[in-house]
Amino acid sequence: MDVVIDVVIDRIEGSARCAAQSQRINYYNCVKRAAQFPAALIAVLLLITLCGCYSGTRPPRIGSNAPDFTVQDSERTVALSQLRGQVVVLNFWATWCPPCVEEMPSLVEMQRRMKAKGVTVVAVSIDVDENAYRQFLKEHGVNLLTVRDPGQKTPNLYGTHGWPETYIIDRNGVTRRKFIGAVDWTEPEITDFLSKM
Prior knowledge:
Layout: H1 2-53, E1 70-72, E2 77-79, E3 87-93, H2 98-114, E4 119-125, H3 130-139, E5 145-148, H4 153-158, E6 165-169, E7 175-180, H5 188-195
Parallel strand pairs: 3-4, 4-5
Antiparallel strand pairs: 1-2, 3-6, 6-7
């Protein structure tokens, strides 16, 4: 009888050990899966973002007429149609955007060099704070044709939601190139491209 009881107790303890071991294995499998989840989620989000940013062989609007716009702030009114016959570098930016601040000196320098060749930079700021905008222009010597569009009507017209973003519009009003992110506008490749338009 004692032997039978020992066997039953061993089996019960063995079953309990198996159950505990199984729970530990399941726990570690869950932990391992949970650790892999953020990496998989990041990969999926990155893929979705890249697909959303660019699909096809050319960005939208390239080769088509640039949408006309008129923007008026407290100091000036700018209309794209008034610049027909010039190469327009349409730049969307903000004072609180570090890449925008980084590229601004090269835009100013490129405008200085290329103005005689009929290249005009139109810098559309999305700043809500007019004082910050005016202060930035003054402190950084920004002497471009710039206008503030806090309602973001112009960027929305172009489908722009990231800053900086720039469109090159030829003398006939056709969008020829699009740049996303900060650019050194004094690079020879860019100035050559603009001077040949």
